[in-house]
Structures are given as C-alpha cells and as structure tokens.
Amino acid sequence: MKKLYGLIGYPLEHSFSKDFFNQKFLSENIDAEYLNFQIESIRELENVLRANPSLCGLNVTLPYKTQVMAQLDELDDDARVIGAVNVIRFGKGRFGRRKLKGYNSDIIGFKQSIAPLLDDSHRNALILGTGGSSKAVFHGLKQLGVNPVFVSRKQKEFCLAYEDLTPRMMERYTVIVNATPVGMYPNVEQCPGIPYDLLTPGHLLYDLLYNPDETAFLREGKKRGCVVKNGLEMLLLQAYESWNVWNR
To answer: Which of 2, 3, 24, 65 is catalytic?
Structure first.
C-alpha cells in the first residue's frame, strides 16, 4: 500500500514541503505521496486522521506547532522542552490504535544551519517573535552556548520590547534571528522594527524566512556589513530530519 505523509497548517499556499517530498519520492522510487491538509482549526486534525488511515507521518506548521501538542500521545524530549511540535510520527498503540508522537526537527535544522556562522563574539542573541519556531531557536541557541532573549511587539513577561533595543543593547546582542512572518512574500518590503542604524559588521542576522531569498531584514543588515543568512538551508535540514523521524 502506498504510504501517505502530509502537512497540517493554515494557510498552506506557499508551503515548500509538498513539492520537496513528492520530488524526493519520485527521484528515489519511493511508493509514497505527500499532501497538504489545510485546516482552519486544530480540532479538524481528527477528521484528517479518520479520512486518511494510510497516514504514516505529518509535518506541522503555523499556527498549530503548539496547539497540536494536546492531540498527541507522546512527546520527544526536545519537543517537550521547546513546547512546540513540527513532526508527528505514527506508530502502533494499544488495541490497534494509532499512536502519535511529536518531535521538533526545527531545532536540528536551525542549529546545523547557524553553527558555522558563530564565533566567540556571538555570546548573546535577540529572537524576534515568540511563536512555535522561535521556541526551537531559543533552545537551539542555548545548546550552542549563545544566550538568547525574546523580543515582542507587545510587553510580555521575560521578553524585551522593540523600544528596549537601545544602543547598549544592540552592541551587546550581536546575533539577531527573525522568527516572525514579517517580510514574507507578498509583503516583501516589510521588516521587523529593530534599529537598523545600530547594526555593525560584527552582527549576524539570520532570517527563518526563505521567500523572498533576501528579505528586507537581511537587506538592511547587508547594507551595514552584517553576516546574513536566510532560512532555506534550515528548511531543507529539518525536512531531512522529518524523514529520518518517520523511518526510524
């Protein structure tokens, strides 16, 4: 029987995963198919599972990386600590029931992608955004020996606000990661509200976005001599790790 994999999220028009995995299946002669399941509520996941009994695994994207956790039977250690899931592995539970275990491959993709760019000057990082992806970035940076702090548009506990980014703060925090959707296609001229005039060649700017290739956030950093990188490699690496999870 053909194996079925898929992605849940909303919206999914610009998702990378479907084309990536179906091309992989074709080129490697794997008898499988990958589908998009665009759902407007996490409650609809139950309907997806019921209608697709041959499902072997799912990816999870915005806005459900945190919400989906309550629907799962078990969590991997990284997913539990991060508090977000982007991969679900289907196994066998009791009485023939499917057992759903959640993993986080974002942390692996992010760490492998950013690690070669880090040096001893990169001791502190600002993470723009507080969603599911930002949580993986937070724990990934900690594991790499970098001290991270979240930045939010609204005043939140344990977060900086954009107005807190003074010259002294910008001098201290030399790694800046955009984990928000600001600047994503089609809104390509938008960028997070950091003080770009305080950036220096000593700063590293990393954007989880990959469409467009060079976001306004990265473009502003490049103008000031910063090291910049988009999220395409991270995306590929986390996709490979998803496949590894499903086939353990």
So the answer is: 65
